[in-house]
Amino acid sequence: MSCSQDVANEELAKDSRADYKIDKVFALEKEDVQRNAYTLLTQEEKYTLWIKKLESLIDNGSFYKSETISLNSKQKALIQELKNKVTKNVFADKPNDEKEYFLNIYAPKFLKKAQKVFTYDQMGLIFYKISKTQEDINLKKLSVTSKANSEGGCNCAAGGYFTCQWGGDKCAANTDCRDPRANCGFMWSSPCDGDCRVFS
């Protein structure tokens, strides 16, 4: 076997492992477990996960475990725009210029456009969830609870447009959240610096 064949085989094995890990994250039933598994993905794997999700939405109007969402041409065009704009650097754990531009300048403008063509539920499922979890079904029936998103704390990005779930729950900033990893908010690329709580 030649050296180039060895390199090609190694890359293929690496891609297969990455695809396996990504599929496992998509398949997890609880969001807090999904978030923990997502944390273990590399920056490139996180990018690949979101690109797969966006491509599936453009091609099929659905993504892992979700019911089909009937998307019109304007919605698909916006998803395509986002897919073209997002880069691997957006999923870096540490701040970088590209990520800061994406989150602080591009994302707010994008979300203003998205609000005009997507429902609130669609925005939550498409841009703030990896896949539909059992909690998403149960939260539609939520009445009173102290934590709506998961059992643990530090599970949302304070100050974001769509921080927790549907209904009356909001992300309350929590100064005890010291984990710098970016696994919350828009495309799970912001720090988890708050707790989801129900406000009446």
Sheet-strand content, in percent, reads 5-15%
Mean pLDDT, to the nearest integer, reads 78
Strand order of the biggest β-sheet: 1-4
Structural class category: mainly alpha
Number of strands: 4
Helical stretch count? 7
Head-to-tail CA distance between termini: 67 Å
**Major sheet attributes:** 2 strands, antiparallel
Helix/strand order:
HHHHHHHEEEE
Shape: globular
For the CA atoms, what is the radius of gyration?
17 Å
Low-confidence stretches: 137-151
Tally of individual domains: 1
Q: What percentage of residues falls in helices of 4 or more residues?
A: 40-55%
Structure characterization notes:
With 200 residues, the protein is mostly helical. It has one domain. Helix content is 50%, strand content 8%. The chain has seven helices and four strands, in the order H-H-H-H-H-H-H-E-E-E-E. The strands form two sheets. The protein has a two-stranded antiparallel sheet with strand order 1-4. Strands 2-3 form a two-stranded antiparallel ribbon. The radius of gyration is 17 Å and the shape is globular. About 8% of the residues have low confidence.
Primary descriptors:
two-stranded antiparallel ribbon, mainly alpha, 7 helices, 200 residues
Kindly summarize this structure in a few lines.
This protein has helices at 3-27, 31-39, 43-60, 73-85, 97-117, 120-127, 134-139, and strands at residues 169-173, 182-184, 190-191, 194-198. It is mostly helical.
